[in-house]
Amino acid sequence: MAVRNFDLTEPQSSRLTGLESAPLRRQDLRRIKQRFMVIAVASLTVPFAAALIVLGVVR
User: Fold this and answer.
1) Per-residue pLDDT tens for 5-18?
2) How far does CA 43 lie from the centroid of its chain?
3) What CA–CA distance (Å, rounded) separates 24 from 16?
4) Burial class (CB in 10 A: 0-12, 13-18, 19+), 9
5) Would you say the pTM of this structure is higher than 0.70?
6) Which residues is 20 bridged to in the sheet?
7) How far, in Å, are 7, 15, 17, 31 from residue 2 at the CA level?
8) How far is Cα 7 from Cα 16, in angstroms, rounded to an integer?
């Protein structure tokens, strides 16, 4: 998936110059994947822990 950035620095630009962004490196992809995995684990763990706390308080 290509992302195009347009250079709008000229006030009367009749032609937009497309700037191609560099593809992500393996290190960047790994970091993004790890970040989403942490978010996924947290989104599963936090409600489970909250339910255990609620059940502990109720009993």
Assistant:
1) 666 666 655 555 66
2) 15
3) 24
4) exposed
5) no
6) 4
7) 16, 20, 15, 20
8) 6
